[in-house]
Structures are given as C-alpha cells and as structure tokens.
Amino acid sequence: MLAYIFRRLLLIIPTLIGIMVINFVVIQFAPGGPVEQVLAEMRGNAVDATSAFSGQAGDLQTNTQGGSLQAGTTSKYRGAQGLDPAIIKEIEEQFGFDKPVHERFFSMLWDYARFDFGNSYFRDESVINLVLDKMPVSVSLGLWTTLFVYLISIPLGIRKAVKDGSSFDVWSSSAIVIGYAIPSFLFAILLIILFAGGRYMDIFPLRGLTSPGWEQLDWFGRIKDYLWHITLPVTAMVISGFASLTMLTKNSFLDQIGMQYVQTARAKGLSEHQVLYGHVFRNAMLIVIAGFPSAFISILFTGSILIEVIFSLDGLGLLGWEATINRDYPVVFATLYFFTLLGLILQLVGDVMYHLIDPRIDFESRDF
C-alpha cells in the first residue's frame, strides 16, 4: 500500500501541471485582462474591478493628461487607443505582462511549487492570506452538507432497498428525482423567498455566516448565531445533494441482499435485522463510506460557489467568482491550484479508506 501511495503522490505533480497548463492557455485568450481593467478604470468605465489598484490607476490617468494622448496609437488592449505607449508599458510591467508567456508560466509554476502565490492584483493583500481567510467558510459549508447528506441518504437508501417496489419506494424515488433535477441555487432562491424576507416569512438572515458583533457573544450565543446563519445555505445544498448517494446506497444493498451468503444466513435462522445489519451492512456500505472524501470535494466544488454568491458568504467560491470577474489572475490560479490539489489528495484518501475498510482490496497490482 505504501508503494501505491507513493506512486499516487508522484502522479499528482504531472496532473497539477497539466491542469495549470490548460487553464493558463485558456486565460490567455480570455478578453478583458487586468491591464484592460485598469485602462477601463482610467477612462472611468470599469465594470467591476475593485481597486486597491485604483490609486495607481489614478496616477497613471494623471500622466495621460496634458497632451500625452497620442491620436492614432494602436494597441492589443481594448480601451488603449490614443494612450501613450509608455503608460501602457508601465501597466504591463506592474502586472508582469511585459514578459513572454512561457516565462510567466514557468515562473508561476516555480512559485506555486514553493506555495508562493504572490499578491492579488486588485486587493492589497497576499493571495495565500486571502485563501486562508476564506477557506473556513467553504470548508464549513462542505462538511455540514456532506454530513447531512450522509445522515439522510444512508437510512433512506437502506429503507428503499428493504421496501423495494413498494409505494414508499415509488414516491420517495419521485421526490429524489425532483430534488436531483432542480439545481441547488434554485432551492436557495426559493428558501430566501419563503424564509428570509423575500416575500413571506423573515426568519433567517440573508447575508453572511455570522452577525455583526459576533465576537462579543458568549460561546453558546456564537454557536446559535452561526447555526442560524448557515441553516438556509446548507439546506439548499443538501436538498439537491442526497439523491445520487441515496440511490447508490439502495443499489448497493440490493446487490448484497441477492448474494449467496445472505441466503445462507437466513437458512441458519437469523432474523432479518441480524442479516441486514450483521452481514449486509458492512459489505454494502464499503463503497458509500469509502467515497466520503470524493463526495465532500464534489459538494465543495460544484455546490458552494453559487450558494456563496447568493447568500453573500465570504468563502473561496465567492472569492474565485469575484477574481474571475475582475481578472485577478493570481487569485484565480491560486484557488484553482488549491481546489485541484485538495481534490487529488482526497481521492487518494478515498482509496486508502477502501483498503482500510476492506483489506481484501489491493491497489498494489493496479497499473498507471
């Protein structure tokens, strides 16, 4: 098993590089880069570039006044027409865009290998501090959602397997299909309309993970306030997240119930409860329990971004969204790097859990 873990850890390196190459190339062709954001701000028509950089942009704008505009000047940047090329060159140097593409890419890889993510273009803060500051919110959402998904899906899946073909199985399957078909952000909007003052009741808060003055509360008050804020976001993510795991649990139990060892246990006179939970449960739950790390990272990746945006939760999803809108490339690549690395590590943890739960599973013989 140690040799397998070592090979998987080595495989993380080329996987990370490949993902970063693809995204770096895509970013190069995306319109509206950080240079264009500053140019737009200088002209007073920036869309959404929040700016610790605005003071520098203002200084550059001052430099363009007094006859420094050159009519007929062409540039590869939108909004640069008529600006002094020296001004544009200065902006490129500040963002590092004066260097060739390949040099910027290899410099980024070397920095990321040392976990040096640089500074945000439009926030006066290092990227690593931003990520560490926002990470608890996203991890909190992911952990609570995964926990409740498992607490709901496992008993429901077992019940559906035992009652396979019954009216309970039919109507619960219909509810699961509906929940799976509707995206979590639509549930979030519905919950806001119903319970957060959107139209009817105003029970839960709409913004943030804690209330103002949370630090002054005692420990019980902090827990109560935190749970009050996180109820609606977690509910929205759980409703659309438990469908696949419920069906996986049901099918896993049905497969095991049809095995010969189950028939043998029944022939020995064991009760149905003893057969189900003494023999079937361990084998059927192998794939469900071992898949916990993958389920967590899937929920963290796919569900939290829009939920954080809708409920104004200051986590990694919202940070990545704002960075993408503002073309804050250091933050974009750092969050991508973090999520990718976390996903690859948790996949490895899932394989290790398979082996720990059932030592008969041998990954040593797998080819790469």
Automatic annotation (TrEMBL):
Cell location: Cell inner membrane; Cell membrane
Main location (coarse class): membrane
Gene3D superfamilies in the cross-refs: MetI-like
One matching Pfam family: BPD_transp_1
Keyword set, alphabetical order: Cell inner membrane, Cell membrane, Membrane, Transmembrane, Transmembrane helix, Transport
Function: Probably part of a binding-protein-dependent transport system. Probably responsible for the translocation of the substrate across the membrane.
GO biological process terms on file: microcin transport; transmembrane transport
UniProt-listed InterPro entries: MetI-like, MetI-like_sf
Gene that this sequence comes from: yejB
Homology family: Belongs to the binding-protein-dependent transport system permease family.
Domain of life: Bacteria
Organism, scientific name: Granulosicoccus antarcticus IMCC3135
GO CC annotations on file: plasma membrane
Membrane-crossing residue ranges in chain numbering: 9-30, 139-158, 170-196, 226-249, 284-311, 331-350
NCBIfam families cross-referenced by the UniProt entry: PRK15133.1
Protein name: Inner membrane ABC transporter permease protein YejB
ABC transmembrane type-1 domain mapped to chain residues: 135-350
Coiled-coil region(s): none
Topology in membrane: Multi-pass membrane protein
